[in-house]
Design a protein that fits this description.
With 861 residues, the protein is an alpha/beta fold. The chain has 24 helices and 25 strands. The chain is globular.
Length: 861
């Protein structure tokens, strides 16, 4: 973000020396833990030594209350699990016995975890949050962009045997884009639709109603997850328009011509139409590569089950629509028998396809859901069944072909070879059985879980899922299988394994990062995913689950991979497994629609598991935080996003040439803003008058450090470059200079860190001084107004301005509660001064109804 020259200058001339890189870390679930749930963190070290002993009389590690700083729980280190990935030694720190809600961190020797919450509501709202990504992936009308794309789809290929001439136009607009590319697959879409429907069916109280059917703001009397599922159903209906017509995908890998915002594509040789591939049951080839299609069952079975569950849920909402789904479920099931086997996807220019090899699981699920749909339809017609599913004989169980999903316990598999990664039919069938039948089906789940556990129990992360492409999708599905097994049997043998897989997704992994964009908002989450929306337009892709870590040798063998920036997780990569938060790595850091849909189900299950209890007497840390604010690494980064209020914040160190202009415009507009200056700025005689003028005009003035120190490494955020004494001494010197201008410390309790870069330790030290750390709200490019044309990350003032306007227009909450950071000077090397756009920006924001406040006003409780 900042020039290396500046960093070098600071390190060379301010006396700050880079501290020794830590050799031990504690990984946690950044979302937090429920009081009655399993709570485990992983300590990991590169040194090979065990957990260092604490002072005499204390145990090997401790749980510390953030507010009181008191140790509330401690334990011995326990079993050493040895080396894993980049680490030479690892331990599991299990504090499940501690159940009091609050805010905590773990300490073991010199290793300290990030802060985390124990509370009943730590997973509340997470499932709805991930629905944002599903809406953003919509094709046809896209509510995120408030625009339409791919409205000309498409022209048919391989439909001759059904009497469809090649290049015949068919309307299949709608559905979801599969990932960062804009291909659309029936298999992933049907599976995603099923998971969304199932999430609403199983956990209806978890989801809210804040969106209309088209995804725009507004309630419509239907849970948002059901709106999203219906979006998928409506597209599947288009992809199965007639009894003997079914289509498998729209577009192919010719889509991969480069990153672009979804609009209309013309690279397929027929205007803006894209190819629509027919489910023929035979191998298909459009280029060098032939797929291994053997039949129609895998795709058609998924259609049938999604339609059947849709019928079940819409039965009491919209009878006409549910009847349509009922008929389509039946015709799709018949289509599955046209030719028993799998339908794989088509690729033209590269060898990468969804190489699905199993179809028995799809047919099992379809059969169970069709039987249930038939029963509902019969009951609707007041007919009594003589053969209810509860009394089905042993033949029902004996015909189950895929007892254990093949990848479970394996070290590797082809891409999407055993899709959808777990056998959903087992769950639906077992629910409708009793006695011997249920026991037999659940035993299949248990055997699969046991195979994974045999591998997982040997390492501290309890990792038994292979690091193949989309390993996060497998991890999510496996956690769901563990959950279903527990729900069906009451057997909690694998509960810790289930939780470990869930924790892995949210930071309890070697990299210490969540695998979901923006979740949690205060945590370490992907910031540079393989996404055109984030890369080209800086749009957030909230809620998207990225592909996840892959084997080191797999990464090295993939085509077209090239990191575009310094690898911030370099010290945690290994020959075993790698993960990169870099848009150049499509293999580990690309979000997927179907994986996100599965995660929505898992998050809903976790939310529903937490008991609804009133808070204990006394104020917990979580209650003491203003829940309307957004936090990151202990700093407030946004005010109340439900209020149309905004804080303009200006920082300065060595440059302040725009100070007089900014002060004059704010006075004319009758706006009070906030200014955070370094001690160097306050003591500079050139800036004395502007400081006094800003104070006179009633603006908020605060500290920005005395010497503009860099507190922590750019690539290793946890690695401090100052110690506590140096930090405090520098900040107090900043206040000393402010005092000379009549700005008292007690009136300036908000602190904005230099370079806007800090970590949890800085936040803790700030709090110990009785101050509140704040930072700018991410999402726009306003903080890039210091960049010069010679810099790699240069952004023109017009680009910066448009990024602010675009964010305001696209996001539901606009710029509500925003801390919008600017600089009052950029120095002589930047001719294009953004502060000159301030009048234009203020005019726009006033027209939109924003109320301007100081940070003190914005963040007052």
């Amino acid at each position: 973000m900042h020039r290396l020259l500046i960093v070098f200058f600071l390190l060379s001339f301010t006396g700050v020396k880079k501290k020794e890189t830590p050799s031990a870390w504690i990984r946690i679930n950044q979302l937090g833990y429920t009081p009655g749930g399993i709570k485990v963190a992983v300590w990991c070290s590169k040194s090979g030594e065990g957990i260092s002993n604490l002072p005499a009389g204390q145990a090997g590690w401790e749980l510390v209350d953030v507010i009181s700083k008191k140790t509330v729980y401690s334990a011995n280190a326990g079993k050493a699990f040895g080396a894993y990935g980049p680490f030479a030694q690892t331990y599991r720190l299990n504090f499940s016995a501690y159940k009091k809600p609050g805010r905590y961190y773990l300490q073991a020797g010199n290793a300290k975890s990030p802060e985390f919450t124990i509370g009943d509501d730590v997973y509340k709202g997470a499932a709805d949050f991930c629905l944002r990504y599903m809406r953003q992936q919509r094709s046809g009308f896209n509510p995120f962009l408030k625009d339409s794309c791919h409205t000309h789809d498409g022209y048919v290929l391989y439909g001759e045997k059904a009497g469809i001439k090649d290049s015949t136009h068919i309307d299949v607009t709608g559905g979801w884009h599969d990932a960062t590319d804009y291909l659309q697959y029936s298999t992933t879409s049907a599976n995603a639709t099923y998971h969304l429907l199932m999430a609403y069916r199983d956990f209806p109280k978890v989801f809210g109603d804040e969106k209309q059917a088209n995804g725009l703001d507004g309630k419509n009397g239907m849970a948002d997850v059901l709106d999203e599922a219906k979006w998928g159903l409506d597209w599947l209906l288009k992809m199965h328009p007639k009894d003997d017509w079914m289509f498998n995908q729209i577009a192919d890998d010719r889509d991969h011509i480069g990153m672009r915002i979804p609009k209309e594509d013309s690279q397929y040789g027929k205007g803006y139409e894209r190819p629509v591939y027919f489910v023929s049951g035979e191998p298909q080839q459009r280029g060098q590569f032939m797929n291994n299609t053997t039949g129609t069952s895998s795709t058609a079975g998924k259609f049938a089950s999604a339609f059947a569950l849709g019928f079940e849920l819409f039965n009491k909402i919209d009878t006409i629509y549910s009847n349509l789904l009922y008929g389509k479920a039946g015709s799709a099931y018949v289509y599955a028998f046209k030719k028993l086997g799998v339908t794989q996807t088509v690729s033209v220019k590269s060898p990468y396809i969804y190489a699905e090899d199993n179809w028995d699981d799809d047919m099992e699920l379809a059969a169970v859901m069709l039987e249930r749909a038939n029963r509902i339809m019969y009951l609707r017609k007041a007919r009594v069944l003589s053969n209810k599913l509860e009394v089905l004989d042993n033949r029902t169980v004996n015909v189950v072909e895929e007892k254990i999903t093949p990848w479970l316990g394996a070290d590797t598999a082809k891409h999407y070879q055993w899709y959808p990664f777990i056998n959903l039919g087992h769950y639906e069938l077992a629910k409708d059985l009793k006695g011997w039948g249920r026991d037999t089906i659940t035993s299949y789940y248990k055997q699969g879980i046991q195979r994974v556990w045999n591998k997982a129990k040997a390492n501290a992360f309890f990792r038994g899922v292979p690091f193949i492409w989309c390993s996060n999708n497998l991890t999510t599905s496996f956690a769901i299988q563990c959950y279903w097994y527990k729900e069906l049997t009451g057997d909690k043998t694998f509960s810790e394994l289930e939780q470990a897989n869930f924790d892995w997704l949210f930071g309890c992994n070697p990299w210490g990062t969540s695998m979901v964009y923006g979740l949690p908002s205060w945590g370490d989450t992907p910031v540079d995913p393989h996404s055109s929306l984030s890369h080209l337009k800086n749009y957030p892709i909230d809620g998207g689950l990225v592909d996840g870590p892959i084997y080191g040798n797999t990464y090295k063998s993939l085509l077209g991979l090239s990191l575009m920036d310094t690898d911030e997780y370099a010290e945690f990569q290994s020959d075993l497994v790698v993960y990169h938060d870099d848009y150049g790595d499509y293999s580990t850091n690309e979000p997927t629609m179907d994986g996100t849909a599965s995660l929505i189900y898992l998050l809903a299950a976790k939310d529903a598991e937490a008991p609804s209890k009133s808070s204990p007497k006394g104020k917990t840390y979580e209650q003491s935080l203003n829940k309307k604010f957004s936090y990151s690494h202990g700093a407030i980064i946004r005010g109340d996003s439900s209020q149309k209020k905004i804080a303009l914040v200006f920082t300065a160190d060595e440059f302040g040439e725009g100070g007089e202009f900014v002060a004059q415009k704010l006075l004319q507009e009758k706006i009070r803003a906030s200014f955070f200056f370094t001690g160097k700025f306050y003591r500079n005689p050139l800036f004395k008058n502007i400081t006094l003028q800003l104070k006179k005009d009633g603006h908020y003035l605060g500290p920005h450090s005395d010497q503009h120190l860099l507190y922590c490494d750019w690539n290793k955020r946890g690695s401090l470059l100052v110690n506590k004494e140096e930090f405090q001494k520098d900040l107090l010197q900043n206040y000393s200079e402010m005092n000379k201008s009549g700005i008292k410390k007690e009136k300036a309790g908000f602190f904005l860190p230099p370079y806007e870069w800090y970590n949890d330790s800085i936040a803790t030290w700030t709090k110990e001084m009785g101050l509140q750390l704040i930072n700018f709200t991410p999402g726009t490019l306003s903080n890039a107004d210091y960049t010069t044309a010679a810099m790699k990350n240069y952004r023109s003032s017009e680009v910066i301005y448009q990024s602010i306007i675009n964010y305001e227009q696209i996001h539901d909450a606009g710029l509500n509660g925003f801390i919008l950071l600017l600089h009052i000077g950029a120095g002589p090397d930047r001719a294009d001064k953004f502060y000159s756009r301030l009048p234009r920006l203020i005019t726009y924001l006033k027209q939109k109804g924003y109320q301007f406040q100081t940070v003190e006003q914005l963040l007052s409780n």
